[in-house]
Write a structure and sequence with these properties.
Length: 495
Amino acid sequence: MRKWWPLVAVCAGTFMLLVDVTIVNVALPDMARQLHTTFSDLQWVIDLYALTLGALVLTVGSIADRIGRRKVYLAGLVLFAASSLTCGIAPNVSVLIAARGVQGLGGAAMFATTMALISSSYQGRDRGIAFGAWGAVNGAAAAAGPIVGGLLTTNFGWRWIFLVNLPVSVVAVALTLRVVTESKDPHPKRVDLPGMVTFTVAAAALTYALIRGAWSSAETIALIAVTVVALVAFVAVERKRRDPMLDLALLRNRSFSALLATGALLSASAWAAMSYQSLWFQSVLGLSPIKAGLVVLPCALTAFIASAAVGRVMHRVQPRVLVGSGMFIIAIGALAQAVIRTGSSWPVVIPGLVVVGIGAGLAMAPLSSTAMALVPWQRAGMAGGALSAFRQLGFALGIAVLGELFRSGLQHTAGPNLAGALSGGQARSVLAVNPALGPVVHRAFADGLDLAYVVAAAFAVLAGILVFALVRTPPAHEAATAPAPHAEESAQVGA
């Protein structure tokens, strides 16, 4: 059992940072009331965390290769705990928003290093089991946020959605110090400051543009322009440097590039539409936040079970078979949720949620494990950061694209004025004023959600095609991320 304690330490941090992406959603009304601010102002409590996490995860992963992945993970845990405490005692909305930004930095430090720490801690069949468990935690965290947030907010108050992180952080720090082995590049290069700045600007501008939407507005167009200019500058900088933050040679490996794209498409196809589905559950069907969270629990459970099971066979089955099949199963699950009609209620989407969970559970662990195996072990932090960045950006992209499709479906049926109220979560208020609009409201949500899920299925199909067409795992892929001898990498346990 002792050999699995490093996995427990890594998974504790992973679960916390991913739950905190969605745990805040259900508490926003209580926050707005107690902090005497508006709901729209508090959107930054969600957005700044996602923005910081997506923008900095690759940068932090590159730094971790140089100074030590365990060290960076510990720093992320401590920063995450301190910022969670600040969020929990925040006297006003400005402090809360700033603390969430810092919390995103701590989350980026953890997210960028977890895969590298697993790769350096386990080999062979144990590595497959470890990545399976890690994938199971990812799947559980995706749906646990609203449930945990609803329970804590209802019974203890919104501040506890942040304060609950403190005991988990303390346990994770203690375990990491005691059982996790340090690993880093034995020949570290200079910090690539120009690369870090240009990529961070590009990722932040793109993430904010995706969150903001309003594609015809001058501000969003300007953000897209900044993204393009910063990306061009980033590529130019990285091509000339001897010690780049992201070795562009990795992207010439078509298998690695295909897996990065698949990571983004997995987040977009499996999880992004749940935000709009939750709007249907709560504002149209009248479910409480806790009940709405419980409806999607089967997705989390099946993802957990499938990912844990696949970890036991990963070393015997070609990864592209697992990942590609998982993406096609996600497509089937998404289409199985595009069945909402005027008289439908929440049970109609349960089969699709279960199937999506199975597909995500099949794909997540082998996707991450294979991406790490395709790069030299000295670049483990860089690879983990790149995959994490693509996953975050894919989720933001999915929210933006599926959100636009959802709103267009609403507008097609309900018209622009009514669609604006419905997409803002005001369906109950609309029906209270004019109950005769009930059939229109139900039909509008059915049209919007069905369209969003059809496109989510298309994302998953595209990812499956990419995997089967481009991913080729070398026979000795397990050795690709094997750590160097302990003396060479200055490995130490509990130091």
